[in-house]
């Protein structure tokens, strides 16, 4: 049943399609002739790979690298083929069975001593590109370590030695097979008459028996294994004592002072000048005495010279090695002239000690008991010496025998002997001199003694 139904559906569809096709053929106008499509351009290969070079070589393999071609056609780039042949033969063989898309390739399973010509070809649908070939054959050799110099820390800056001293430098390095070591000075081979260089498989010894200033310069050490190398530079500075100043002269002389000026030395000992030493000598004795050390300027004033003496002066130069062996002496000498001196004693003005009375302490209020003597104290200053008056309730006490008045070096005291109930009140001390007066007061309270009940009975 399903088969008959399918046949009926196909027949109906075919009739409808024929009907549609006939109607379309009767209604559509005649069309133009259809042109054939333009065939695509033929596929073209790429240009050759760029900058083919050797990255590494060891005893079993050669590693190469390159850059993609500059021109790649519309069909793109499928990969690269690496080809080799032994030097002296033209038997090029592909190393990689399948195309490689990487721009780096390791050619393995090689034999030590073989010299290989290597080229790389780019491949796409258009075919092979022109090959990019190494200009020289590559020697398969044992290179375990690239050359490396281990420069000691103290040689990474300027190395300074004195004239006559030994220069003995040991500089270790590494590399395999044994590197070739070369030394140059300022770009030229070292003078073997001056410098002794001895190299082992681990270090290089640079030796100068007695250094001279001409040995100063920039030395370069190069360690090379085939096309690989490492370089370091060592700056050697040989110094010595400087020469004396070019000239020293006296430019002025006044009072007990002499002004000097000098110029820098013609020979600084191949290093910077660190200072100068200035000395003086009396004409009578001829003994030299240092007046300035480690002095940095080119002029100085020498002071505290003795009147009537004649002086000469000399200047030494200093650098890192020390003081110059010789000094430059002034051609002229300086005489400190005697001058008449009139002694004028200092004038002293008599100090005026006059002062109005002034109490320096106050009298605090006091409290005492009937029958117990008490004392009031205060202190006063003034010049001329003040006259002291004691008062009770603003009445001058005078020579009352109940009271004892004392004035000792400005300490004033009033003793009240066995005070009674009527001795309380306001006491004052007055100080008087010709410049004025001062007064200080206090209150004295006299209390009855405390009695117990037994005493009352």
Automatic annotation (TrEMBL):
<dbReference type="InterPro" id="IPR003598">
    <property type="entry name" value="Ig_sub2"/>
</dbReference>
<keyword id="KW-0787">Thick filament</keyword>
<keyword id="KW-0514">Muscle protein</keyword>
<dbReference type="InterPro" id="IPR050964">
    <property type="entry name" value="Striated_Muscle_Regulatory"/>
</dbReference>
<dbReference type="GO" id="GO:0032982">
    <property type="term" value="C:myosin filament"/>
</dbReference>
<feature type="region of interest" description="Disordered">
    <location>
        <begin position="29"/>
        <end position="50"/>
    </location>
</feature>
<dbReference type="GO" id="GO:0007155">
    <property type="term" value="P:cell adhesion"/>
</dbReference>
<dbReference type="InterPro" id="IPR013098">
    <property type="entry name" value="Ig_I-set"/>
</dbReference>
<dbReference type="Pfam" id="PF07679">
    <property type="entry name" value="I-set"/>
</dbReference>
<keyword id="KW-0130">Cell adhesion</keyword>
<dbReference type="InterPro" id="IPR003599">
    <property type="entry name" value="Ig_sub"/>
</dbReference>
<dbReference type="InterPro" id="IPR036179">
    <property type="entry name" value="Ig-like_dom_sf"/>
</dbReference>
<feature type="domain" description="Ig-like">
    <location>
        <begin position="147"/>
        <end position="235"/>
    </location>
</feature>
<protein>
    <recommendedName>
        <fullName>Myosin-binding protein H</fullName>
    </recommendedName>
</protein>
<feature type="domain" description="Fibronectin type-III">
    <location>
        <begin position="48"/>
        <end position="143"/>
    </location>
</feature>
<comment type="similarity">
    <text>Belongs to the immunoglobulin superfamily. MyBP family.</text>
</comment>
<feature type="domain" description="Ig-like">
    <location>
        <begin position="357"/>
        <end position="441"/>
    </location>
</feature>
<dbReference type="InterPro" id="IPR003961">
    <property type="entry name" value="FN3_dom"/>
</dbReference>
<comment type="function">
    <text>Binds to myosin; probably involved in interaction with thick myofilaments in the A-band.</text>
</comment>
<feature type="domain" description="Fibronectin type-III">
    <location>
        <begin position="244"/>
        <end position="339"/>
    </location>
</feature>
<keyword id="KW-0393">Immunoglobulin domain</keyword>
<dbReference type="InterPro" id="IPR036116">
    <property type="entry name" value="FN3_sf"/>
</dbReference>
<dbReference type="Pfam" id="PF00041">
    <property type="entry name" value="fn3"/>
</dbReference>
<dbReference type="InterPro" id="IPR007110">
    <property type="entry name" value="Ig-like_dom"/>
</dbReference>
<keyword id="KW-0677">Repeat</keyword>
<dbReference type="InterPro" id="IPR013783">
    <property type="entry name" value="Ig-like_fold"/>
</dbReference>
């Amino acid at each position: 049943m399903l088969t008959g139904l399918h046949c009926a559906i196909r027949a109906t569809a075919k009739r409808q399609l024929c009907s549609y096709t006939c109607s379309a053929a009767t209604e559509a106008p005649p069309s133009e002739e259809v042109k054939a499509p333009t065939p695509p351009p033929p596929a073209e290969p790429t240009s050759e790979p760029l900058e083919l070079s050797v990255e590494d070589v060891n005893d079993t393999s050669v590693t190469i690298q390159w850059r993609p071609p500059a021109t790649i056609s519309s069909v793109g780039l499928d990969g690269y083929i690496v080809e080799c042949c032994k030097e002296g033969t033209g038997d090029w063989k592909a190393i990689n069975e399948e195309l490689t898309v990487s721009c780096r390739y390791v050619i393995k399973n090689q034999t030590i001593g073989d010299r290989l010509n290597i080229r790389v070809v780019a491949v796409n649908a258009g075919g092979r590109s022109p090959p990019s070939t190494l200009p020289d054959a590559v020697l398969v050799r044992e290179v375990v370590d690239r050359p490396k110099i281990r420069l000691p820390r103290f040689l990474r800056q300027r190395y300074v030695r004195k004239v006559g001293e030994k220069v003995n430098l040991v500089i270790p390095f590494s590399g395999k097979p044994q590197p070739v070591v070369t030394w140059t000075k300022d770009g030229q081979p070292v003078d073997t008459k001056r410098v002794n260089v001895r190299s082992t498989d681990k270090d290089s010894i640079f030796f100068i028996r007695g250094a001279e200033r001409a040995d100063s310069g920039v030395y370069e050490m190069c360690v090379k294994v085939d096309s690989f190398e490492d370089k370091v530079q060592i700056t050697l500075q040989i110094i010595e004592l400087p020469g004396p100043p070019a000239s020293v002269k006296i430019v002025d002389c006044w009072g007990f002072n002499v002004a000097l000026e000098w110029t820098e030395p013609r020979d600084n000992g191949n290093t910077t000048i660190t200072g100068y030493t200035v000395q003086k000598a009396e004409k009578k004795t001829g003994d030299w005495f240092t007046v300035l050390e480690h002095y940095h300027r080119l002029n100085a004033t020498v002071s505290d010279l003795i009147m009537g003496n004649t002086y000469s002066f000399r200047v030494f130069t200093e650098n890192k090695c020390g003081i110059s062996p010789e000094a430059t002496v002034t051609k002229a000498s300086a005489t400190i002239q005697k001058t008449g001196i009139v002694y004028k004693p200092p004038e002293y003005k008599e100090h005026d000690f006059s002062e109005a009375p002034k109490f320096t302490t106050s009298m605090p209020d006091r409290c005492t008991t009937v029958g117990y003597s008490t004392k009031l104290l205060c202190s006063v200053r003034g010049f001329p010496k003040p006259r002291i008056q004691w008062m009770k309730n603003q009445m001058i006490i005078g020579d009352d025998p109940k009271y004892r008045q004392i004035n000792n070096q400005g300490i004033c005291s009033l003793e009240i002997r066995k005070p009674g109930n009527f001795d309380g009140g306001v006491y004052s001390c007055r100080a008087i001199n010709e410049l004025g007066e001062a007064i200080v007061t206090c209150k004295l309270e006299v209390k009855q003694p405390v009695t117990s009940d037994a005493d009352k009975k």
